[in-house]
Write a structure and sequence with these properties.
The chain is mostly helical and about 400 residues long. It is about 80% helix and about 0% strand. The protein has 2 domains: about 170 residues, MFS general substrate transporter like domains (Growth Hormone, Chain: A); about 200 residues, MFS general substrate transporter like domains (Growth Hormone, Chain: A, Up-down Bundle). α6 runs antiparallel to α14. The longest helix is centred in the middle third of the chain and has 51 residues.
């Protein structure tokens, strides 16, 4: 077959592209490994100390993630996202397998668990921007919406499979067995990542020089971009309004209504089902028309659903509302990520992905204690309404900025 025929051949859809499938397999293995690791860490922490000490161990990884995430974006752009993701999963594999070996031989206590959590937080600070920068380097632009849908499905699969797998590993051999399973899953991603071949950056778009200068260049790129700059504000507001009520508020709501732990499980299952349906929609469709306007409208509607959730008296109705929240948040979130990847210059994707992740993975977790304290003072209803108002503001802002409202995904 000659070069002209190859050039004229239509590109493969993402779900049939070997490059995308390798990346998807590696991402799924890594995501399931993450879920198993966090379950093992929480179980080991609860078994070794008080509930307050266990909570501190679980929260400590957010500190290096928040402090280092922006610099992680610079590293991802300098070294290349494949190399950074490969090194990150290698580090996580070695740390979890090492911890499993130590737990088999001794009972080191909370200090070792806290140290591992700090290491994971630091590794996440470089892993997360690199993960965000990989899809545009392995798939054509018109497939990035579909890739985000596939990524969302893989993320949901990690949540669904990781918890029972981790629980089974703990039941069989304790936390050491679960940490070993997490290490094996991280190891599974490595050959798939090694097989990836990235599209080269355009000439003249390499990073170099002082780290702070590269970081400043990335921030200037955002500030001067008609779509990306406003989009970062939208993502930050949505994360700050959404993460607290949905992570802390659901547990408080279930306790107050007498639904107990099964109620939390049903609410989370409803949210996951809605978000999974949104990911499947984008994976099948590939793109949604009027992406900017659609993400703004779904954010506003999702904010309304978040506020309603606090006032629904019965569990079945609350689960139905949680499905709606997951569906609307899944659509708006996938469109945000797809627009970031299609609008951004490839040379800045690591740094831009770091900024877009800063709210949900760096700042919002640090605000969870404030959400709990506010719920204790004023009740869960006002906390849900306040969070919903911030989410609605993000949607209104997206609709108010003409360049973002008119943004489209490539056909």
């Amino acid at each position: 077959m000659n070069a002209a025929v190859l050039a004229a051949a239509p590109p493969r859809p993402a779900h049939r592209d070997p490059q995308v499938l390798r990346w998807l397999g590696a991402y799924t293995a890594s995501t399931v490994g993450d879920s198993v690791y966090y379950l093992a860490l929480s179980w080991a922490a609860v078994s070794s100390g008080s509930p307050a000490q266990a909570g501190l161990v679980m929260a400590v990884s957010a500190v290096p993630r928040a402090l280092l995430l922006l610099f992680g974006g610079v590293i991802a752009d300098r070294l290349g996202p494949r190399r950074v993701v490969l090194a990150s999963d290698t580090a996580r594999c070695l740390v979890t397998l090492g911890l499993a070996a130590v737990l088999l031989a001794a009972s080191p206590g909370l200090w070792l668990l806290a140290a591992v959590a700090l290491v994971f937080g630091a590794v996440d600070a470089v892993f997360l921007p690199a993960v965000g920068a990989l899809p545009p380097r392995i798939a054509p632009q018109d497939q990035l919406g579909r890739v985000q849908g596939l990524r969302g499905l893989a993320h949901r699969m990690g949540s669904v499979l990781g918890a029972p797998l981790g629980g089974l590993a703990v039941a069989i051999g304790g936390p050491a067995s679960a940490f070993g399973a997490a290490g094996a899953l991280f190891a599974l991603s490595l050959p798939l990542l090694r097989a990836l071949r990235l599209r080269p950056l355009p000439a003249g778009e390499k990073t170099g020089g002082p780290v702070l200068r590269d970081l400043a260049d990335g921030l200037r790129h955002l500030r001067g971009h008609r779509v990306l700059g406003p989009l970062m504000i939208v993502i930050l507001l949505a994360d700050l309004g959404f993460v607290g009520p949905l992570n802390v508020g659901l547990a408080l709501l279930a306790e107050q209504r007498g639904w107990g732990a099964p109620g939390i499980g049903w609410l989370l299952a409803g949210f996951g089902a809605g978000a999974g349906a949104a990911s499947l929609l984008l994976a099948v469709r590939g793109r949604l028309p009027r992406a900017g306007a659609t993400l703004g409208r779904t954010m506003v509607l999702g904010a309304v659903a978040v506020a309603v959730l606090a006032f629904v008296p019965g569990l079945p109705a609350a689960v139905a509302v949680a499905v709606a929240v997951g569906l609307l948040a899944g659509v708006s979130g996938a469109l945000c990520h797809a627009l970031v990847q299609t609008e951004c210059d490839p040379a800045y994707l690591g740094r831009v992905s770091a900024v877009s992740s800063l709210g949900s993975l760096g700042l919002a977790p640090l605000g969870m204690p404030l959400t709990g304290a506010a719920a204790g003072l004023w009740g869960t209803g006002p906390v849900f309404v306040a969070g919903a108002a911030v989410c609605a503001l993000s949607g209104v802002f997206a609709l108010a900025v003409p360049a973002l409202r008119r943004a489209e995904l490539p056909k």
